[in-house]
Amino acid sequence: MSLTRNAEATAARTADSRWLELLARAGFIGYGIVHLLFGWLALQIAFGNSADDGDQSGALRTLAAQPMGNFLVVAIAVGMLAMAIWQALEAAVGHRAERGSDRRNERIVSGARTVIYLWLAWTAWKVFANANSDSASQQEELTARLMQSSGGRWLVGLAGLVLAGVGVGMVVYGARKKFLKRLKTGEMSVRTTQLARRLGMAGYISRGGAFAITGLLVVLAAVSYDPEKARGLDAALRILRDQSYGAILLTLIALGIAAFGVFCFLQSRYRKV
């Protein structure tokens, strides 16, 4: 027990590090930039003008092609890594203000965020290193390999259900404005609070809808034994565009994703870290 308490105390001290806090806040700025570019690519897909993947890897490649883009991509990778460490510590010993099942659920969510931030950090590094960071093709290839293994289709289908569930959870999280309890609302003006509420709701609901559609496509890929359907967010956005009124819906999602990018900038200042 003493070893466990010592480990928790060490983790808690690390979580309270001022440097980690500053890097995590910088990470939110990078996260916001990625989502603004992600929203722009989604908007291009809505009007049939996008030549790159409509996801985070496409956004990072777009950024890397700009002046000083590689420097910004590396900075985003460092910021994402800091956010991953922060959320890993939250998953391990954090959310002490919560009690019982609420704390357990928050720690699970922090664990999921850790994986997302690590994936973004790795993607950013691959973009900087000019490695293959086409996430849509990589996901299709991985799905094809899994389907060839025993029980692989079940595993792919389960992953799709989990992803769809995460998307639905984001929608509920945004609609119920649960993100507000993570902000220092006491330090915010009334107008800033209203802005954060609107941006957060639009952002989480839009991202959640995109993730839910992506998860359903992965499930369909498993059912129909068609890995080409499992190409991630890019495929989900393009399939949505091709439906009746799809361009309008995709435009709204793109604007919502961009709104989440602006919300990330507010989080860099007011998020409880």
Annotation keywords:
about 270 residues, mainly alpha, about 0% strand, globular, DUF1206, DUF1206 domain-containing protein, transmembrane
Strand-helix topology:
Blueprint: H1 2-15, H2 18-46, H3 56-64, H4 69-93, H5 100-128, H6 135-148, H7 152-175, H8 190-224, H9 232-241, H10 246-270
Helix pairs in contact: 1-4, 2-3, 2-4, 2-10, 3-4, 3-5, 4-5, 6-7, 6-9, 7-8, 8-9, 8-10, 9-10
Transmembrane segments: 28-48, 68-89, 110-128, 154-175, 204-225, 245-266
Protein name: DUF1206 domain-containing protein
Keywords: Membrane, Transmembrane, Transmembrane helix
Compact description:
By secondary structure, this protein is mainly α. The protein has ten helices and no strands.
Detailed description of the structure:
With 273 residues, the protein is mostly helical. It is globular and about 50 Å long. α2 (18-46) crosses α3, α3 packs across α5 (100-128) and α7 packs antiparallel against α8 (190-224). The mean pLDDT is 81. The protein contains ten helices and no strands. The longest helix has 35 residues, at 190-224. InterPro entries: DUF1206 (IPR009597). Residues 26-93, 111-176, 202-271 form the DUF1206 domain.
Distance between the termini: 28 Å
Q: Given the helix and strand composition, which structural class is it?
A: mainly alpha
Secondary-structure element pattern, one letter each = HHHHHHHHHH
Proportion of helical residues: over 70%
Low-confidence stretches: none
Oligomer: single chain
Organism: Micromonospora qiuiae
Keywords: Membrane, Transmembrane, Transmembrane helix
InterPro entries: DUF1206
Protein name: DUF1206 domain-containing protein
